[in-house]
TrEMBL record:
This is THIF-type NAD/FAD binding fold domain-containing protein. One of its GO terms (molecular function) is ubiquitin-like modifier activating enzyme activity. It holds the Pfam family ThiF. It comes from the Bacteria. Residues 8-151 form the THIF-type NAD/FAD binding fold domain. Transmembrane segments: none annotated.
Length: 164
Protein backbone atom coordinates (compact mmCIF):
# COMPACT_ATOMS: atom_id res chain seq x y z
CA UNK A 1 0.00 0.00 0.00
CA UNK A 2 1.49 3.38 -0.98
CA UNK A 3 2.32 5.68 1.98
CA UNK A 4 -0.36 8.15 0.90
CA UNK A 5 -2.98 5.45 1.41
CA UNK A 6 -2.09 5.28 5.09
CA UNK A 7 -3.05 8.95 5.31
CA UNK A 8 -6.18 8.27 3.27
CA UNK A 9 -7.18 5.49 5.66
CA UNK A 10 -7.53 7.92 8.57
CA UNK A 11 -9.86 10.10 6.46
CA UNK A 12 -11.94 7.10 5.38
CA UNK A 13 -12.32 5.93 8.98
CA UNK A 14 -14.12 9.16 9.90
CA UNK A 15 -16.26 9.33 6.74
CA UNK A 16 -19.87 8.17 6.40
CA UNK A 17 -19.38 7.66 2.65
CA UNK A 18 -16.49 8.11 0.20
CA UNK A 19 -16.75 9.49 -3.32
CA UNK A 20 -13.80 8.77 -5.61
CA UNK A 21 -13.35 10.83 -8.74
CA UNK A 22 -9.56 11.06 -8.72
CA UNK A 23 -7.83 10.57 -12.03
CA UNK A 24 -4.19 10.05 -11.18
CA UNK A 25 -2.72 7.66 -12.02
CA UNK A 26 -6.15 6.67 -13.44
CA UNK A 27 -9.71 6.18 -12.16
CA UNK A 28 -9.47 2.36 -12.12
CA UNK A 29 -6.26 2.30 -10.06
CA UNK A 30 -7.46 4.84 -7.51
CA UNK A 31 -10.82 3.09 -7.31
CA UNK A 32 -9.07 -0.17 -6.48
CA UNK A 33 -7.06 1.50 -3.71
CA UNK A 34 -10.06 3.33 -2.26
CA UNK A 35 -12.44 0.39 -2.60
CA UNK A 36 -10.02 -1.93 -0.80
CA UNK A 37 -9.92 0.52 2.11
CA UNK A 38 -13.68 1.05 2.11
CA UNK A 39 -14.44 -2.67 2.00
CA UNK A 40 -12.00 -3.27 4.87
CA UNK A 41 -13.66 -0.49 6.89
CA UNK A 42 -17.24 -1.33 5.78
CA UNK A 43 -17.78 2.12 4.20
CA UNK A 44 -20.14 2.80 1.28
CA UNK A 45 -18.37 4.39 -1.65
CA UNK A 46 -19.19 5.86 -5.04
CA UNK A 47 -16.90 5.89 -8.05
CA UNK A 48 -17.08 8.21 -11.04
CA UNK A 49 -14.93 10.15 -13.44
CA UNK A 50 -14.20 10.55 -17.11
CA UNK A 51 -11.93 9.51 -19.91
CA UNK A 52 -11.49 9.97 -23.65
CA UNK A 53 -12.52 13.62 -23.26
CA UNK A 54 -16.23 13.06 -23.94
CA UNK A 55 -17.12 9.96 -21.89
CA UNK A 56 -18.04 10.13 -18.21
CA UNK A 57 -18.10 7.18 -15.84
CA UNK A 58 -21.20 7.07 -13.63
CA UNK A 59 -20.89 4.78 -10.66
CA UNK A 60 -20.84 2.29 -9.30
CA UNK A 61 -22.24 2.87 -5.84
CA UNK A 62 -20.84 0.15 -3.61
CA UNK A 63 -22.33 -0.74 -0.23
CA UNK A 64 -20.28 -3.45 1.50
CA UNK A 65 -22.17 -6.70 2.11
CA UNK A 66 -25.16 -5.43 0.09
CA UNK A 67 -23.92 -4.78 -3.45
CA UNK A 68 -21.37 -6.18 -5.84
CA UNK A 69 -17.82 -5.05 -4.96
CA UNK A 70 -15.41 -3.00 -7.10
CA UNK A 71 -13.32 -6.03 -8.10
CA UNK A 72 -16.37 -7.82 -9.52
CA UNK A 73 -17.53 -4.63 -11.25
CA UNK A 74 -14.07 -4.00 -12.68
CA UNK A 75 -13.96 -7.58 -13.96
CA UNK A 76 -17.33 -7.04 -15.71
CA UNK A 77 -16.00 -3.72 -17.05
CA UNK A 78 -12.97 -5.38 -18.62
CA UNK A 79 -15.23 -7.97 -20.25
CA UNK A 80 -17.51 -5.18 -21.52
CA UNK A 81 -14.56 -3.27 -23.00
CA UNK A 82 -13.38 -6.33 -24.89
CA UNK A 83 -16.76 -6.37 -26.71
CA UNK A 84 -17.42 -2.61 -26.88
CA UNK A 85 -16.79 0.04 -29.48
CA UNK A 86 -15.72 2.44 -26.69
CA UNK A 87 -12.28 3.97 -27.23
CA UNK A 88 -10.43 3.86 -23.93
CA UNK A 89 -7.27 5.73 -23.05
CA UNK A 90 -5.60 4.28 -19.98
CA UNK A 91 -2.76 5.86 -17.99
CA UNK A 92 -2.28 8.74 -20.38
CA UNK A 93 -1.89 12.23 -18.94
CA UNK A 94 -3.28 15.05 -21.04
CA UNK A 95 -2.40 18.70 -20.66
CA UNK A 96 -6.00 19.79 -21.27
CA UNK A 97 -8.44 20.22 -18.41
CA UNK A 98 -11.63 18.31 -17.84
CA UNK A 99 -14.76 18.93 -19.90
CA UNK A 100 -16.86 21.07 -17.53
CA UNK A 101 -20.19 19.87 -18.91
CA UNK A 102 -19.18 16.23 -18.52
CA UNK A 103 -17.76 16.79 -15.03
CA UNK A 104 -20.95 18.57 -13.96
CA UNK A 105 -23.21 15.75 -15.18
CA UNK A 106 -21.18 13.09 -13.40
CA UNK A 107 -20.75 15.16 -10.20
CA UNK A 108 -24.49 15.84 -9.93
CA UNK A 109 -25.36 12.18 -10.37
CA UNK A 110 -22.75 11.22 -7.75
CA UNK A 111 -24.06 13.85 -5.32
CA UNK A 112 -27.65 12.62 -5.69
CA UNK A 113 -26.51 9.02 -5.29
CA UNK A 114 -24.67 10.03 -2.09
CA UNK A 115 -27.79 11.72 -0.68
CA UNK A 116 -29.83 8.58 -1.39
CA UNK A 117 -27.30 6.35 0.40
CA UNK A 118 -27.00 8.62 3.43
CA UNK A 119 -30.70 9.45 3.87
CA UNK A 120 -32.47 6.39 2.42
CA UNK A 121 -34.74 8.86 0.59
CA UNK A 122 -34.85 6.26 -2.20
CA UNK A 123 -32.79 3.33 -3.41
CA UNK A 124 -29.44 4.11 -5.00
CA UNK A 125 -29.65 4.03 -8.80
CA UNK A 126 -26.13 2.93 -9.66
CA UNK A 127 -25.69 -0.22 -7.60
CA UNK A 128 -24.35 -3.31 -9.37
CA UNK A 129 -23.81 -1.31 -12.54
CA UNK A 130 -21.74 1.36 -14.18
CA UNK A 131 -22.79 3.92 -16.77
CA UNK A 132 -20.81 5.46 -19.60
CA UNK A 133 -22.18 8.91 -20.43
CA UNK A 134 -21.37 10.16 -23.92
CA UNK A 135 -21.62 13.93 -23.57
CA UNK A 136 -21.77 14.31 -27.38
CA UNK A 137 -25.03 12.34 -27.65
CA UNK A 138 -26.20 12.55 -24.02
CA UNK A 139 -26.65 8.79 -24.08
CA UNK A 140 -25.72 6.45 -21.25
CA UNK A 141 -24.59 2.89 -21.90
CA UNK A 142 -25.10 0.78 -18.76
CA UNK A 143 -23.03 -2.27 -17.85
CA UNK A 144 -24.56 -4.48 -15.17
CA UNK A 145 -22.23 -6.49 -12.96
CA UNK A 146 -22.70 -9.72 -11.08
CA UNK A 147 -20.84 -11.16 -8.13
CA UNK A 148 -18.13 -13.67 -8.97
CA UNK A 149 -18.32 -16.98 -7.12
CA UNK A 150 -14.64 -16.80 -6.14
CA UNK A 151 -14.78 -13.23 -4.77
CA UNK A 152 -14.08 -12.99 -1.04
CA UNK A 153 -16.33 -9.93 -0.68
CA UNK A 154 -19.23 -11.10 -2.85
CA UNK A 155 -19.40 -14.87 -2.57
CA UNK A 156 -22.33 -14.59 -0.15
CA UNK A 157 -24.20 -12.51 -2.77
CA UNK A 158 -23.41 -15.13 -5.38
CA UNK A 159 -24.85 -17.86 -3.17
CA UNK A 160 -28.03 -15.82 -2.61
CA UNK A 161 -28.47 -15.16 -6.33
CA UNK A 162 -27.99 -18.85 -7.12
CA UNK A 163 -30.94 -19.71 -4.84
CA UNK A 164 -33.27 -17.25 -6.62
Amino acid sequence: MPDNLKTLESAVISADIVINCTDYPDINTTSTWISNLCMKLNKPHIIGGGYSGHTGIIGPTIIPNQTVCWECINSSHKEFLSKSSQNVIINMRKSAGANVILSSFVANIQAWECIKVLTNISSPTVINRRGFLDVNTLSIEWVTSKARANCDYCKHLFQVSEKD
